[in-house]
Design a protein that fits this description.
- The structure holds two protein chains of two kinds.
- Chain A is α/β, with parallel strands linked by helices.
- Chain A has one domain: Response regulator (Rossmann fold, 3-Layer(aba) Sandwich), CATH 3.40.50.2300.
- Helix content of chain A is 41%, strand content 20%.
- In chain A, helix 4 links the parallel strand 4 and strand 5.
- In chain A, helix 2 runs parallel beside helix 3.
- The longest helix of chain A has 13 residues.
- By secondary structure, chain B is an alpha+beta fold.
- Chain B has four domains: 70 residues; 104 residues, Beta-Lactamase (2-Layer Sandwich), CATH 3.30.450.20; 74 residues, Helix Hairpins (Orthogonal Bundle); 164 residues, Heat Shock Protein 90, CATH 3.30.565.
- In chain B, helix 4 runs antiparallel to helix 5.
- The relative contact order of chain B is 0.06.
- Classes of the chains: A alpha/beta, B alpha+beta.
- At the A-B interface, helix 1 and helix 5 of A face helix 6 and helix 7 of B.
């Protein structure tokens, strides 16, 4: 890794956010954390992270709405997004694709190692 | 009255004797005429008694019919007879018409008409069940939903018997239909509750798992071997809980018909290998000879990754669990079918096998074979039910062969291209 890449993690479940932040930091990323879509959107526009890892169901603004807002932004229209989802939300993934968010991680099925390797893969491809 | 008739007849006899004054004929006439009269009288009075009895029986029958009709109303069941030899003798009880919210008529609706009233989603299956019932003599029982004219969705359970006549021609379908809407709704609520509860459990369990994995990975500093051992033990327990919660969620998805199929391109050998790696340590713990053979020229599939993974996981973890130390477990993955259009997964173990008495119930929900229960106490009996449902839902199947104390081989066959069900499916 030439330079430290920045990941924005948008997740309202504090223990999950803490675990993800810890693991990603441990793997050499700078990790910004936001607890809802509204804060995530503001932080993304301000810090321009290399990748956004976002939950869908969150207070104030959900992940899908945040992505839709991001896609309207000059910088945000191409930013890489990975969705963290539960199986019950899979029907929302079609909507995610319309918003150019093609990658997702099903939380319950994924180990931390799976998540880190997916993040690495997406960042390498950029 | 008898005396007066007798007197008249005797006088009549004497008059006849005057005409036939002598001999046997006179005696015969004198005796026969009153005897005949007596018989006529006895017959007449018997007829009266029979008529009274018939009337009383018919009254009893009316009372019983009313009682039966009330019982049908209270119990929400109707009775039917379809007579295929004499269709004009087919009969529905009043409550059958009430169940279908249709006015009584001289000839009840046909089986085909009933199928037409069935809820769109159940129609094909219900049609097949009726066809099976019609072909096979003996008892039948199944449930289906109907849309009644008031717009309500009713759950009906039919229990009946099929009688065949000469040349195996269908004679009768007789039985009852119950309105089981309330029971079905309670069952649905129960299933939805399980789904909600499991779903809520999944979020903290996932956080727990990720935290453990992070700690074991050195996120908060390197752990001592002793710390790592305990942390691993917590991780194993939380993974076991996640598995159980996933099983419960999958059962409720199957039962609420919300199991989603999201096909994507899959390198099936890679998927099988990742499950193999995941399970290898369990096999090593049990000193099993565990091998995976994936046909090298295997094309990519279009399947739902997490559902296909579940099939592999389930078959392999069962084989490992129920095979005694030092023995063998093999998983073969290859192409099959007439035009190589299917994926065949064969998982063979040399384990405890499935006792004959349990074999017919292997895929039943919550059923665990007697010997499995005593060997592994914490199984749920949901795994094989879930994968049978998944395989069938995507157009495949799973079967097995087993000999107790020798081992079991499971065969899963799955199409290479899984179709995403339509929105209304």
């Amino acid at each position: 890794m030439n330079e430290k890449k920045t990941i924005l993690l948008v997740e309202d479940e504090a223990p999950a956010a803490l675990a993800l932040q810890g693991a990603l930091t441990h793997h050499g990323y700078d990790v910004l954390v936001a607890e809802d879509g509204e804060k995530g959107l503001a932080l993304a526009k301000e810090k321009h992270p290399d990748l956004i890892l976002t939950d869908l169901k969150m207070p104030k603004m959900g992940g899908m709405e945040m992505i839709a807002e991001l896609r309207k932004d000059e910088w945000g229209k191409d930013v890489e997004v990975i969705i963290l989802t539960n199986m019950s939300e899979v029907e929302m993934l079609e909507k995610a694709m319309e918003n150019k968010a093609f990658f997702y991680i099903i939380k319950g099925d994924s180990s931390m190692a799976d998540i880190v390797s997916k993040v690495e893969l997406r960042l390498q491809k950029r | 009255m008898v005396d007066s008739i007798f007197r008249v007849l005797t006088t009549f006899g004497e008059k006849v004797q005057d005409i036939f004054p002598s001999g046997i004929i006179g005696i015969f006439v004198a005796l026969a005429i009153p005897a005949t009269a007596l018989s006529v009288y006895l017959l007449y009075s018997m007829r009266e008694r029979v008529a009274r009895r018939v009337e009383s029986l018919s009254q009893e029958l009316d009372v019983m019919t009313v009682q039966l009709s009330e019982a049908e109303k209270i119990g929400h069941f109707g009775s039917f007879t379809w007579n295929f030899e004499n269709p004009q003798e087919s009969l529905w009880s009043e409550e059958m018409y009430n169940l279908f919210e249709t006015p009584p008529r001289r000839r009840p609706p046909t089986v085909d008409a009933i199928v037409e009233l069935t809820h769109e989603k159940d129609r094909e299956e219900t049609k097949t069940r009726w066809q099976e019932a019609i072909k096979r003599p003996g008892r039948f029982s199944f449930a289906f939903r109907i849309l009644v004219p008031s717009g309500k969705l009713k759950y009906l359970r039919v229990e009946g018997t099929t009688t065949l006549g000469g040349e195996n021609k269908l004679r009768f379908l007789k039985g009852v239909m119950h309105d089981v809407t309330k029971e079905a709704e309670v069952d649905k609520a129960k299933s939805e509750f399980v789904s909600l509860a499991s779903h809520q459990l999944k979020t903290p369990l996932t956080s727990l798992r990720w935290t453990m994995e992070g700690l074991l990975g050195g996120v908060a500093g390197v752990l001592t071997p002793e710390q790592a051992k305990h942390m691993n033990s917590v991780l194993q327990s939380s993974n076991r809980m996640i598995e159980m919660v996933n099983d419960l969620l999958n059962v409720s998805r199957i039962e609420n018909d919300t199991l989603r199929i999201m096909p994507e391109e899959i390198d099936v050998c890679e998927l099988a290998k990742s499950v193999y790696e995941e399970q290898r340590h369990r096999a090593e713990e049990r000193k099993l000879n565990f091998t995976l053979n994936c046909q090298p020229s295997m094309p990519h599939m279009s399947a739902d990754k997490s559902l296909l993974r579940m099939v592999f996981q389930n078959l392999i973890s069962n084989a490992i669990k129920y095979t005694p130390e030092g023995r063998k477990v093999t998983c073969d993955v290859e192409l099959g079918g007439a035009v190589k259009e299917s994926l065949f997964v064969r998982v063979a173990d040399t384990g405890i096998g499935i006792p004959k008495a349990d074999q017919s119930r292997v895929f039943e929900k919550l059923h665990r074979a007697s010997n499995a229960e005593s060997l592994v106490t914490d199984g749920t009996g949901l795994g094989l039910y879930i994968i049978k449902m998944i395989c069938q839902k995507v157009g495949g199947d799973v079967t097995f062969e087993s000999i107790e104390d020798k081992g079991t081989t499971f065969y899963a066959s799955l199409p290479l291209v899984w179709k995403k069900p339509g929105k209304d499916a």
